[in-house]
Amino acid sequence: MSQSVKALAANTKGDFASFNQTVIQRRNLRPDDVAIDIKYCGICHSDVSMVQWQGAHFPMVPGHEISGLVSAVGSNVTNFKPGDRVGVGCFVNSCGKCAACKAGQEQFCEHGVVVVFDSEDDDGTITQGGYSQAIVVKDHFVLHIPDELALQDAAPLLCAGITTYNPLKRFNVGKNSHVAIIGLGGLGHIAVQFAAKMGAQVTVLGHSESKRNEAQQFGATDYQILKSPADFQALAGHFDFILNTVAADMDLNSYLPLVKSNGVFCYVGIPSNDIHFNLFSIFGNQAKVTASNVGGIQMTQAMLDFAAKNDIKPQIEMIGIDDVPQAYQNILDSKVHYRYVIDMSTLK
Amino acid sequence: MSQSVKALAANTKGDFASFNQTVIQRRNLRPDDVAIDIKYCGICHSDVSMVQWQGAHFPMVPGHEISGLVSAVGSNVTNFKPGDRVGVGCFVNSCGKCAACKAGQEQFCEHGVVVVFDSEDDDGTITQGGYSQAIVVKDHFVLHIPDELALQDAAPLLCAGITTYNPLKRFNVGKNSHVAIIGLGGLGHIAVQFAAKMGAQVTVLGHSESKRNEAQQFGATDYQILKSPADFQALAGHFDFILNTVAADMDLNSYLPLVKSNGVFCYVGIPSNDIHFNLFSIFGNQAKVTASNVGGIQMTQAMLDFAAKNDIKPQIEMIGIDDVPQAYQNILDSKVHYRYVIDMSTLK
């Protein structure tokens, strides 16, 4: 029992030219399901990584930054009704019973969270993501998009937004915090807005003079390009919290001393190589080095509400479904100007 | 204006045979000074490292685990009187005015903490440590040793004790905590006692079957020798807090997944090589990797009081002053059975 919907699927590992329009099956509504007409879907770097991944299933429909309108709800659903503006992010199922799920951290479900595509769901099917006309998702994993947020702006927040909001909240960024954001790309430009609206003094640590003005427009109070040891020395012990949105290798022995005593250096971009540093780099400040992995459903809703209230939105470039292969290549070449969003009405 | 006291000094970098008995100067009492007759001084691995350090000043009197009796106090000192049982640990001066000092974290003084030996004090002299008959220290940096603690047992607590107590407190180890201590040496055997008396379930991760019984005597509820991937898998996500007391290189990609969601992996032993790990090792648990650096004066006093109240003491091997060169070599060769303490009455 299922419904056919149009979708864009990658057919061959690592081959962006293998994307083609196809038809996939969505399950009929269970009592706790929400059916969604997808209007927009963002493209995240991790979509690209999944298409390149050795262990992926093909054909694969990527996409985990989904926004749209409710078309129907199951018999037990009380929190959504047809026409509601909604979003779906990185995951669509979890056990709901383990300590992590009960703590609202479904991403760490002890029985394995079910991600929105290329993941085995509880009925044994492999999930398919947001590059499609419609999706059916258990109500717990559907987010309300506030009226103040345009649907196309909400889409990237479902991954890039929660990925940056979660660590800022987890480490209590607020008034009087001194925060550095490394990198002003798809993640960084949203992180700057969140941190600034939380009341922090925000410094962007960037690589290019061309982004200085944009950093300030997003709310940064300072923009620094660190090159010499003296540049680093001038900011030693300055930051309560550094969020690293750049996946490239970097000299942590230079960056870690920028953290204030007992402060935090947090990765949200994941380099493929091991990170390495000398412990003497953190012996004088007891800095904590950590990583952050998206965020739970309750916090994702709080993030959307905070963004709506504070006029936070990603800078997006809208593309049609046929532009996806080129967009993937541009992301790999760092040519994306913040974030691509696919207009799903172009799926024919 | 100064007083001559006997001491043991190292005269040549890296040459333990260069230790000889000599006479050094201690300053006359300032109004806020405490003069101490040293009874015992522990030997810490970092003493050995300092004698080997390229940047050290010679002759050098090491020693930062000092216990003894007050012999005299300056005119403004109200907290100590002659005859009091006291200790001195890693540092003897700081600015007292910066944010770190005001927060009771003198070790992070923004103007540079003055350590007990081989450090420039505010009068321009180079400090000399505890392998001597007497020392003069500003009252703020002198600790009370509770009556329940023998002076020789208190000595190693001034460094090894606070080094392990501070991170356990900083990360809120207590009842219901699952703690792992890696290594059962000079630091580890004290850490196990603290964690157990704080109410935690303590697992020692050791290398040798021979230490299993001792681990249990110190209060560990479990002892594990991890070798195979299956050994690590069996403890995945098990620990709120892992304290690594071993300075040797280790495979962090195996150890970090043992941490529970949002838990901590903390170094107190400092490897000379960079540490390295893949961020995917902490992407599933958001573990924080950090280091801990002794602890402030207020917490050091709390540590001594906690040790006294809970009958916590180091396992020590008492030696005479002439045994120091051999003790240094034994420490390098990992032949010390927990901790050496020098009986300072052997200094002639």
UniProtKB/TrEMBL annotation, chains A, B:
- Classification via InterPro entries: ADH-like_C, ADH-like_N, ADH_Zn_CS, CAD-like, ER, GroES-like_sf, NAD(P)-bd_dom_sf
One GO MF term on file is: oxidoreductase activity
Q: Which domain of life is it from?
A: Bacteria
Q: Which cofactor does it need?
A: Zn(2+)
The family database entries (SMART domains) matched by this protein are listed as:
PKS_ER
What Enzyme Commission number(s) appear in the record?
A: 1.1.-.-
> In what residue span(s) does the Enoyl reductase (ER) domain sit?
14-342
Which EC class is the enzyme in? oxidoreductase
Coiled coil residues, start to end:
none
Keyword list (alphabetical) reads: Metal-binding, Oxidoreductase, Zinc
Cited Pfam families: ADH_N (PF08240), ADH_zinc_N (PF00107)
The record's comment on protein family reads: Belongs to the zinc-containing alcohol dehydrogenase family.
**PANTHER family recorded:** ALDEHYDE REDUCTASE
**Entry protein name:** NAD(P)-dependent alcohol dehydrogenase
* Species of origin: Lactiplantibacillus dongliensis
